[in-house]
């Protein structure tokens, strides 16, 4: 992230009470009827099994009471209970539960994926792998009295079964949890109830496993007849929500505002969204012209980048809108365009397309890493004031040529993914890191050289088996707007006071950050930005009038002299109009962070098209993923509706679905606190962004963003989805359920904030993992270009031993280990990370690293340098480098450490865990302890070999004990493992 306003001091942490509400854990008020089911005292279990899915002619229950023996295969035959259900009541004696499997008596089994079913006592249902507690055959609604047919929606909660617990008016409550409802249609459950002479009933709903919807403890009042209950809304005399809908025959409106813009032989086509009585699901783009004839392409968004066209050729584009029923709108008016000459660029790359969890990440500030071409070095308007000029250290110094030259250094460390700062053309006064985008469609020339374009970097990395993750910004542009979308004109008078600041206009000159404008002698020329005359269409208030204030130099300040969200200078359609007041409020998603960061109105279709079209360009070049800056400042519903689908659709379109599956998007959700939920706000918590939406919102994106914010804040932290994707089931790996994954992974802000020591980070990280869709994809780092642990403004300075311990944890625990450039030698430890233009960059945590890389290095494999000479050889000989190299060798050799789920069950030890990954012929199981001793119980018997020492332990009783290896050291005992990996070093020994 780029520079931002200072936030207020952290408030004291408050323990949050469980929130009761739509899906709280509070059961209903049942008067004198006890809430417990009969399972609490019963020694029998009545097991109901759902047969519709299996369609077996007969069903057997094969079981063993807890602590007892299994029945003889195939078990006991179950009897018909009601439509689609069979049942069996079994005597458990004194047992309080049973293990069970089901079969058809002819060798076909349902054993819960090899885990068996763990059932309790009382009434139990097993339906498609889901265990619940109710009688699905009770109360079939065939009596002669009054009846109530109740439909209940689980579309929001995602419940896989539903029960209704009720009492007719004047009557008694059913025994909790009530009676099972029947699946009526997708998202709806149904039950018809006999209520005798009563004309209404009280009711609450539950999922059969203790999660209740009791209308915020008020219960529901439901009349006789047909009633629907959805999101706490009761609708009497309702229509059947599962009845066949009238066919949709209405076509969408024709798209309008179609534009086509050519750059060389590529064309970006965009248009305004069409409207429909239900919803537009896609667009059909038709291109005519050239020698290839008519081409029709399906597009999911309202922007399309058409590449590889013929030179100097006329093309025409029309667009039709299509709804889910296949109704197609009339064609739009045609947009015509003529292509230019083909750009002399290298062939686009192809993403490597492998599981991103296999690739440790090295994060570089490109302009501060290594200078391969001094001709593109540039200072800036603050270069002298900051002290950089005196140090001969221009802020734009490193470049792609330098990065290409040192890819072997990064490979020798063992990293196979490089996260680089944004590449788009920037425009701010003290900007070298890339977060102040000006022309999102142009690579900043200060980073490129002849033979070392951005495309060349991508291709060179891929040739070495290394990925490029591009830092991208959707939230904001530079203070000077975004070229091609909107750039503001500011008031500027070149009088004796301000002539130093406002450059004389040169109508024929275009700013690119690199080319020196001849009149001013500057590459950071600003003559194109200002005007003394009020521009046509000006919306800035009090243009050119003195504000009454003075600058630091004592100069008169004028209105509209400086970009501001509240001045009216930026159009409301494209930019937000306010400053953030509450960092955990809705305004943090719809206001400016800082005067340098003009906040896009990301709910506007034109803005969306501009950004999607820009980032399509870099996807087409073959980048392997996006690190998303300031992701928390855009509503999740906008990510889920617009930007994330556009990213994955484009990758799939260009490179196939497998490449899209492994295109790695990870977001910076800046939750700078030490608790699980960011001061109780789910909308501002990192894990929140890993999930799809749970309900439909308004078709208008701006309205939807408010609806989504309010809905999720109301549900609160106690009603967010949970996941077992990161966790083992006992000792077994299970297939993750990614069906509700949004497409955005996250930087592990909680571990980052708590990396004051490794134990602290480990404990906090584990605590959040159940609320992340899949924490095995979390990007884990200690510090970065923004902050150190606990929101420290300095680079980590905990000491070499502590760094070794941090690395040992990061490289073996779940998630993807990530290192900020130079941390392998504790570069700039304790130095202030960012002081803006008030001090030279050489004194900060963003100092130039190239002096440590001088010389030559070659690496043909990860984690090993084939040769090195000069200063880079000294760098590679440092103790943390040796430690890092061996950790990377170990991690690469053990799949469980890359993609495995983990568990701490049955394990003693402060930082100890087991991990397993199973896929095809691969079955990797590892026991890990960092720094301290550990005992692992209940593990599979067999031969375990430590990857660090080569020590071999044979386990026959399910227990393995490990002595403390010492701070920074670790032990990795692998079942049927490869043996010792690498050679002993200063920490791993």
TrEMBL record:
<dbReference type="InterPro" id="IPR005085">
    <property type="entry name" value="CBM25"/>
</dbReference>
<dbReference type="Pfam" id="PF00041">
    <property type="entry name" value="fn3"/>
</dbReference>
<dbReference type="InterPro" id="IPR017853">
    <property type="entry name" value="GH"/>
</dbReference>
<feature type="region of interest" description="Disordered">
    <location>
        <begin position="333"/>
        <end position="352"/>
    </location>
</feature>
<feature type="signal peptide">
    <location>
        <begin position="1"/>
        <end position="31"/>
    </location>
</feature>
<dbReference type="InterPro" id="IPR006047">
    <property type="entry name" value="GH13_cat_dom"/>
</dbReference>
<dbReference type="InterPro" id="IPR013783">
    <property type="entry name" value="Ig-like_fold"/>
</dbReference>
<feature type="domain" description="Fibronectin type-III">
    <location>
        <begin position="251"/>
        <end position="342"/>
    </location>
</feature>
<keyword id="KW-0326">Glycosidase</keyword>
<dbReference type="GO" id="GO:0046872">
    <property type="term" value="F:metal ion binding"/>
</dbReference>
<keyword id="KW-0378">Hydrolase</keyword>
<dbReference type="Pfam" id="PF00128">
    <property type="entry name" value="Alpha-amylase"/>
</dbReference>
<keyword id="KW-0732">Signal</keyword>
<dbReference type="GO" id="GO:0000272">
    <property type="term" value="P:polysaccharide catabolic process"/>
</dbReference>
<dbReference type="InterPro" id="IPR003961">
    <property type="entry name" value="FN3_dom"/>
</dbReference>
<dbReference type="GO" id="GO:2001070">
    <property type="term" value="F:starch binding"/>
</dbReference>
<keyword id="KW-0479">Metal-binding</keyword>
<keyword id="KW-0119">Carbohydrate metabolism</keyword>
<dbReference type="GO" id="GO:0016798">
    <property type="term" value="F:hydrolase activity, acting on glycosyl bonds"/>
</dbReference>
<dbReference type="Pfam" id="PF03423">
    <property type="entry name" value="CBM_25"/>
</dbReference>
<keyword id="KW-0624">Polysaccharide degradation</keyword>
<dbReference type="InterPro" id="IPR036116">
    <property type="entry name" value="FN3_sf"/>
</dbReference>
<protein>
    <submittedName>
        <fullName>Alpha-amylase</fullName>
    </submittedName>
</protein>
